[in-house]
Amino acid sequence: MGRRLRSSAGLRQAEAVIIERYPQLLRLAYLVLPPGLDRHARLLRAHRGVQHSLRAAGRRAGQGGDALAAVRAEVVRYAAGRGRGPLLPWVWGLRMWPSAEELDEAARALAGLSPYARAAHVLCRFDGLDEDAAAGVLAQAGAGDPAGEVRAALAAEDEEAADGGAGQGRRGGTGAGVGQGPRTLPRPGRETILHPADVHTRPTDLLLRRTRVRAAWGVAAVLLLAAGLTRATVDGPGAGLPVPYAGAPAARTALDPARLVRVPERAWSDTGRVDFTAWPARGPRTGDRSLLTRALGAWAAPPSGTAVTVAPAASAEPPGHPPQLLFAGDPRPGTAVVVFLDADRVVRYTERGGRRSLDIARTDDADVTTAAAVTLARDGNTALRLLAPWIATAGTRDLTAPAQPVRPLPIGPDGTVTTPSPGEAAGGGRPDGAGCGPRPVLEVASSPRIVEKHAFLLADRGGLLTVHLTYTPPAEGADAPPARQPREATGPAALARWAQEACALDSVDGRAVRAVNLWDFALTELPEAAGRAVWSCTRATRWTGQGDVLIRLRPPTGASLAVTRARSTAACGRFGQHVLATTVWRAPSGHDYQLAAGSREVTEIDATGSLHTRTPGRSLAVPAPPAPAPPATLTATLRSGAVITALDSRDGGRD
């Protein structure tokens, strides 16, 4: 009787802790879960982990343990070791993600640590535990070296703090900066905002929802009757599904070809959400149940020999609900292709010559441009693409030859188009058109039912999806208008600049990148009357929101100078609009000059260290300190009074 009373009391204590600290516990689970999960799955599994902790934590509390520490330990135990278990609670028809967008940044930042080190970071930096208390929680959770995991988490933060502070000043002689620069690890002091208890939701299949619900009740009744009258045979429920899924009702629902979401053909022209969810099911084999079953089964459990390609930060998990069918057909003789949409993922299944392959790409927040095309098949230097139903015309142009007109391409009745792709002969090369080799890109125009006179460029970088190219022109003068947003790269000025920077696309990973913007953020006069130079920042934005940037200085003649590169940064994007770049430039006379330029909000540039100068305005040009003097440190003051630093780096060089 006493043991039963203690157990009941422990459960009540654990329940009280979970109710009181649910947002914090949810954050702990969310950040410890495997980094490969998408936001929806991570959020649901975090809820599952917190709720799952009740009984085990209750037993520990009933035995005299601290209830809060016990609950934390069980949450960590689940997230670190059993985070890929059954996906409960179940949410039908909705995708969910935390309202605090910084939480996903924190999850990506912690991805390089072990699960227990991630837990240690959250416990120490967000929940306020000291090192011993955090190690105690990890020990209860089953960590082999609790103290070591805590040290690893704190060492990672200390290393990042050093790199983000003094480390900025010891990186070499050329670079670019944005505000205080990106932080790899989340910092303390955000207790009130950084948790996933408040969520955004988005419907996955609004179209035909009422019809599908009614049909589902009818199908459920038929299945119940059939289940009562028949035995499981090779033709019974689950036939064609992988063995682990054939007996699971939820899996049979998600992987049943009859339950695939099929959007009406003209839905795209009568909706305010123009993205992949508005694509109808196209292709001659959308009714081929056998092909669709094989495709869904291979997605759930790829057979031996299946080539699986998963885009960076994408999830390869099977669908949690019936996905949307985008295409099923034979784009090439002897090749069968099925394309699905599962919320923030596009999945392509291919059968060719007895071989199977599965390609999975992210599609977070896709729009009219980034959801404009999907690659169905490749053959040599051509690719067959399925265009969005709102694409009215398509053509191809050579990015390195801006004066040449667009060559129209015929669009098939099912929305497919064959386009050239950059071949091996294109290679690398200089960033100006001459010597770079042809760079074919697809130019498409939206239907007037979406927007009038809207054309845009799509580049093939080897991924399942194409990459949207944009251009941001410079803002000149003190009275320049507010910073311009990226615009379509189809105008004469944009095409002329992209022709000079076309080879910058060679470093873009088409599996991870959704868009590349070329931003000319400053124009400066070079010393010795050498003409006007353009400072540009090329930002490749990934589907995750992070971006890689390349900053160049282009003199009016001669080779372009690669100033610096930065990875996983907000620089040159919507949330990194303040930029300062600096480099050493050699004039035709042979003299070296320290150059610097800032974006439109810069009012003053200050050089310290081996140089001591302060220049009003957005640009600086002074004789460079003679070698072997250490590089100068440059900062800029914004109109707001904030100060930004040019990250010193000698990663750049002449192309």
Average pLDDT rating: 80
Number of strands: 29
Total DSSP helices: 13
Q: Could you name the ranges where pLDDT drops below 50 across 5 or more consecutive residues?
A: 86-90, 164-174, 178-184, 188-193, 205-239, 243-248, 424-434, 648-655
Describe the main β-sheet briefly: 11 strands, mixed
Rg (C-alpha, Å): 28 Å
Strand content: 25-35%
Identify the overall geometry.
Answer: flat
The separation of the N and C termini measures 80 Å
**Helical percent range?**
25-40%
Given helix and strand content, the structural type is: alpha+beta
In short:
The protein is built from 13 helices and 29 strands.
Note the topology:
Elements: H1 2-20, H2 22-32, H3 39-62, H4 67-81, E1 94-98, H5 102-109, H6 115-125, H7 131-141, H8 146-164, E2 175-177, E3 199-203, H9 209-229, H10 243-246, H11 249-254, H12 289-300, E4 307-310, E5 324-332, E6 335-342, E7 345-352, E8 355-362, E9 373-379, E10 382-387, E11 391-398, E12 407-409, E13 416-420, E14 440-446, E15 455-459, E16 467-472, E17 487-488, H13 492-501, E18 513-525, E19 532-542, E20 547-554, E21 561-569, E22 580-586, E23 592-598, E24 602-608, E25 613-616, E26 619-623, E27 633-638, E28 643-645, E29 653-654
Parallel strand pairs: 4-8, 16-18
Antiparallel strand pairs: 1-3, 2-22, 5-6, 6-7, 7-8, 9-10, 10-13, 11-12, 11-14, 14-15, 15-16, 16-17, 18-19, 19-20, 20-21, 21-29, 22-23, 23-26, 24-25, 24-27, 27-28
